[in-house]
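# step 3/5: fold
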Amino acid sequence: MLEVSNLCTFYGSSQALFGIDLRIDQGEVVTLLGRNGMGKTTTINSIMGIVKPASGNISYKQQVIFGKPSFKIAKLGLGLVPEGRQIFPNLNVRENLVATAANHGQKQNPWTMDAVLNMFPPLKTRLTSMGNLLSGGEQQMLAIGRALMTNPDLLLLDDATEGLAPMVRQDIWASLAELKNNGQSILIVDKNLNDLIRLADRHYIVEKGRIVWQGSTQEFSASTSVRDKFLGI
């Protein structure tokens, strides 16, 4: 579904990514792991065209998307839940969801507002609340719902549960598990390894802008030395 090869990205004269390679197959949940500042968000933003990569290749469903503007990439079926949520603060919950509603892939059973609200019941009573008045958990639910309203074939989540209360995190993980069971392909960045191990099929670890390890969940679970080396504090 998605293939990234030899991806290099700069911020000015400073190089952030040094030849990133990764792939995501149809229906897979894949993680991108690493300590802060190692290039995870830059990788996602490079895929989405938010940051323009310098070289390499990015293909989505065998179509080259390297260098395309982000709105064209989104129309092809990639949905982003960005770091920091970035919901529209001056729009209410209903307006945030309606603003992104689209079905460019002409899905027979597209995501609707009712479907999003059924997945995230706390939003039902907040439809008229402005985005900046929501709790962190409600904002994250809204950010995921907003991305689903674009009816993506591939969902990218950057810091899926960062800063959320434990009970809210459980709700988010349960929702992601439901999406996986329904065949949704997902690339996810998060620090909660135990939850990721239960959810994901494969894992990539980024260190200083390079992929330093990749493998299945079974391999990741058995590689305690790898986790300690690249993910430990």
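# step 4/5: annotate
The chain has one domain: 2-230.
# step 5/5: archive (pending)
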